[in-house]
Amino acid sequence: xxxxxxxxxxxxxxxxxxxxxxxxxxxxxxxxxxxxxxxxxxxxxxxxxxxxxxxxxxxxxxxxxxxxxxxxxxxxxxxxxxxxxxxxxxxxxxxxxxxxxxxxxxxxxxxxxxxxxxxxxxxxxxxxxxxxxxxxxxxxxxxxxxxxxxxxxxxxxxxxxxxxxxxxxxxxxxxxxxxxxxxxxxxxxxxxxxxxxxxxxxxxxxxxxxxxxxxxxxxxxxxxxxxxxxxxxxxxxxxxxxxxxxxxxxxxxxxxxxxxxxxxxxxxxxxxxxxxxxxxxxxxxxxxxxxxxxxxxxxxxxxxxxxxxxxxxxxxxxxxxxxxxxxxxxxxxxxxxxxxxxxxxxxxxxxxxxxxxxxxxxxxxxxxxxxxxxxxxxxxxxxxxxxxxxxxxxxxxxxxxxxxxxxxxxxxxxxxxxxxxxxxxxxxxxxxxxxxxxxxxxxxxxxxxxxxxxxxxxxxxxxxxxxxxxxxxxxxxxxxxxxxxxxxxxxxxxxxxxxxxxxxxxxxxxxxxxxxxxxxxxxxxxxxxxxxxxxxxxxxxxxxxxxxxxxxxxxxxxxxxxxxxxxxxxxxxxxxxxxxxxxxxxxxxxxxxxxxxxxxxxxxxxxxxxxxxxxxxxxxxxxxxxxxxxxxxxxxxxxxxxxxxxxxxxxxxxxxxxxxxxxxxxxxxxxxxxxxxxxxxxxxxxxxxxxxxxxxxxxxxxxxxxxxxxxxxxxxxxxxxxxxxxxxxxxxxxxxxxxxxxxxxxxxxxxxxxxxxxxxxxxxxxxxxxxx
Length: 772
Hints:
By secondary structure, the chain is α/β, with parallel strands linked by helices.
């Protein structure tokens, strides 16, 4: 009989026989086995040689358990939708209908001591981590029987090792990394599951925490529940690359069918074992679908058709698909599953009744579990006794080759490294005498200007922050040698060299640093805020120029200009999440933005090997092509910028460039730069790689100029800077009345610590505190 049943189970296709006979055969087969095997869809792998097995098995008991939990979550979410329509649930409410296999499959394989944190679509996870149905629904209706006594609502539910839903898009990503850090710090063999949607996959903070987790080998499993839509936007309209399992770039990834609870379970089992061997983080993508809108206020039909939703329900529904599987495999009968359906309905109906009828917390409990010592309870300036607003609250980088002739020479640069490019800049470069001497002059001026700024700072004539560019001159000079006048440049706070090359005189730069009236912006901006036509300044906030650069590139495309935006930042800011956000937008819309990382080896006082899991910054755009360049070679820089401009203006979209350079000074003048690197290291770089010395030796070796000619240039540069220093020191500061000029359209009364200007006797060099 057993042999015959096994044969029948392999050869009979259930869909060809009546349902009643299917159930009989299935019941007979179950007599022979309480376990069945299935084949999942193939897993897609990124940076992995092997992944989860596609051959999975499930026992009868587990099958019934998974089915029951998925049905309960489906009914619970349906009930929540009805309660919302009845206005018993207020505010935001995000339903999980259609995605049940992800939560159930994950929780089936997780360890009880593993940490789990997800987004605002959290009801199913709350139920699976220990809360009763009535606790979930009561929380939604704001009742005291809720998961957190009605104070959290739809997006804020918690259990042991379940760190909740989060109302801020992507906020859980950084918290999940912190939970993984705690697991490793406490030497636990546990992981942190950090879930987010496809919309939050473009959040910059995700890439910041991926870097940290990879750098420290933290056991964090990042999981993107890709339901196809970020709010009302299809993934292909919001993401340049929709293979989210590859979006971790240098960390491995796995794609799984998120509508198959067994595929999810197998992916989680495998991932857990991977992370617990100390290999660091992993990126999973579960391809799923949500039947409801983004939230209850979204009908979900303005950006997709009803037919689309119904087709998914018909062909990919996780509950129906699992039901058909386990019946056909003979693990259960259809009648048994109907009984489970009825029981789930009864459970949810009872929970709905509680959620409707239980009272809300009393008003005085609003501050409970918030403060250690509860302060006087005021709401909008009145005590609770005086307030009748509680109901309202609930609604509320040389080789010389040849010399063509005396005025031009050819060189070979170091090889360029390429990422996602079949060809790149030519390493055979030429330079004529005029251009060589021009670049040499500009580098000398920038160097001497920065040396003077250093001395002025030490004389306390420059106050506040001051970030010097000495050592990195080849980057700026090489870039400006080929940029078009209408190209835009935006950079970080280390901006003096770019300001000079943009047309600002040395006098105006140094006067600005000293806060004088003839400074670039009349002494109001200081070291970090210098501007000129198409030069959008230095920026005081780390990485803030990255999205602004993307915006400038957008304006160029919008106005049909054949120009680009050069967006520069340091290696420290390369780990800023907003860079990845801006890169995604530029790739999606093919914006002419050239992201340039000036990698000087140290983010403030931290070597890059200690702050970045991947120090190939030219590849950090992942799906955006990139180029590594010797940033100490002004001709290599110039050649790379030529190539990049041609690439971007041809409509190919953005490009990443890494200039490998070095700064001779500390991060700022306040940093001696010797606590995290040796003086010998700096002197060795000065001796072997100084960009000015390298260009000088090339020019002399190729007979483009004599040593005397170059000495003359150096002398002229020194004189120019010295005159600028004297000018800046003699220049008066701006008047106090001009402090707020060029800020307001209509000037308000100028009040300083309660006094008007008429009350204050202004002295030319007095401090404000001496005036009052």
